[in-house]
Amino acid sequence: MLHLLREVGYDRLTIDTVAARARVSKATIYRHWPGKAELVAAALHERHVDRRIPADTGSLRGDLLELLRATAAICTADSDLIQALTLAMRTAPELEKTIRQQVMPAGRVLSVAVVVRAAARGEIPPEAGERDLFHDLAPAMVMSRILAHGLPADDTFLTQLVDQVLIPVLRYRAD
């Protein structure tokens, strides 16, 4: 389904074309998903969230590097899809709502798992997991590097991001 989405774009994607490509009836698709936005969200969830299990390297730094490597791999492999869907979300309110409610929170579960483990090990304060800044900042920096600037999110960049930005954000304690 994501291959078809890449080919035709969200606006021209129809349940008819998905059904024809999958060689199933439209009724089969509608039994599982009420509409196009939900179908796209389910495909994204499966590709980007269900298959990613946050690595437990034994340290916050190692876990963050592994999480960001996975994020960078997704952004690199699917940069065209991410950009197209970001644009489509601006003109398709049902897609925007569905992505924000179903895909984005599921992706955040991964970064929360890393933070919870680090707090349990005493590497960061327990309240660090509630920092929206961290959960927004980590993927945004990787996506910006790859999508906006066209630069690789290589280990040098990811290590710098982890050591100079993310760990200090997570270790911050308000006085």
What is the topology?
Elements: H1 2-8, H2 15-22, H3 26-32, H4 36-50, H5 60-77, H6 79-91, H7 93-120, H8 132-148, H9 155-171
Could you walk me through the main structural features you see in this protein, from its secondary elements to its overall organization?
With 175 residues, this protein is an all-alpha fold. The protein is 74% helix and 0% strand. Helix 5 (60-77) packs antiparallel against helix 7 and helix 5 (60-77) packs across helix 9. The longest helix is centred in the middle third of the chain and has 28 residues, at 93-120. It starts with a helix and ends with a helix. 23% of the residues are buried. The mean pLDDT is 90.
What composes the largest sheet? none
Total strands: the figure is 0
Q: Looking at the structure, what is the overall shape? A: elongated
Which strand-content bin applies to the residues? under 5%
Structural class category: mainly alpha
Low-confidence stretches: none
Return the string of H and E elements.
HHHHHHHHH
Percentage of residues in helical conformation: over 70%
Distance between the termini: 50 Å
Give me the Rg, rounded: 18 Å
Average of the residue pLDDT scores = 90
Number of discrete helical segments: 9
